[in-house]
C-alpha cells in the first residue's frame, strides 16, 4: 500500500478488540472523552442496523453519551468527514466490509487518529470481518478480556447460546456469553439437544463431556 505522508499531526490507527462484554465500547468512549477534553474535534461512526439512519448515540455504563453516525459503507466516513476533525471513533467494526481497512489507512495517513472497536472473533472463534487486517496494520492494539461465565476466568471468546448460524446476529446480546478458551465450545451450535441441556443444566452437561477436560 502506498503511503502519502503529509506530516500533519501524527496519525495513527488504534484497535480496541475482544469478546462481547469486555468493555470495548467503554474503552472507545474513554479515549474519545480524553480527546474531547484535549479540545480535539471527534467524529464517531458505527454500522447502520436495519433502516435506522438517524444520528444515534453510543453510551457507556457511566452514561457518557456521544453522537454517532450510522453508515452502511466505510467510504461514507470519508464523505462525512468534517474539516477540523482530529479523532475518528468507529464502533462495531466487525460488521463492516474490508474496505474499512483502506479507509482507516487513508485517515491515519492524513494525520487523523482513528480508534476502532469491535469483536476480534465471531461465535466460532474465527477472525471477524476486517478486524484481522486492522490488527495487523494498527499502530496500537488492545485485546480486552471479559469474565468467563462458566469458570470465572479471563474470557477471550464469545459463546453463542442459540442455534442461529449466521455470523452476524445484531442486537441479540442475551444469546451470548463470554467464555475462556477451555470453556468455549463452538460445537454447541451443532447439537440442539446438547445446547438445551447446556442452557438448563450447565454443570451436568459439561460433566457429561461436552467440552475437553481442563
Ligand atoms: Zn472458563
Describe this structure in words.
The chain is built from 6 helices and 11 strands. It starts with 11 loop residues before the first strand and ends in a 7-residue tail after the last helix. With 214 residues, it is of the alpha/beta class. Helices cover 24% and strands 25% of the residues. The protein is globular. A 7-stranded mixed β-sheet has the order 3-4-2-5-6-1-7, with helices on both faces. Strands 8-9 form a two-stranded antiparallel sheet. The protein folds into 2 domains: 12-144, P-loop containing nucleotide triphosphate hydrolases (Rossmann fold); 154-207, no CATH class. Helix 3 (99-109) links the parallel strand 5 and strand 6. Bound molecules: zinc ion. Zinc ion (ZN) is lined by residues 148, 150-151, 153, 179-180, 182-183.
List keywords for this structure.
single chain, Rossmann fold, alpha/beta, disordered C terminus, 7-stranded mixed sheet, 214 residues, two-stranded antiparallel ribbon, 25% strand, 2 domains, 24% helix, binds zinc ion
What is the element layout, followed by pairings?
Elements: E1 12-18, H1 24-37, E2 41-47, E3 56-59, E4 65-71, H2 75-79, E5 85-90, H3 99-109, E6 113-119, H4 131-137, E7 140-143, E8 146-147, E9 154-155, E10 157-160, E11 176-179, H5 192-200, H6 202-207
Bound molecules: zinc ion.
The site of zinc ion has 8 residues, from loops.
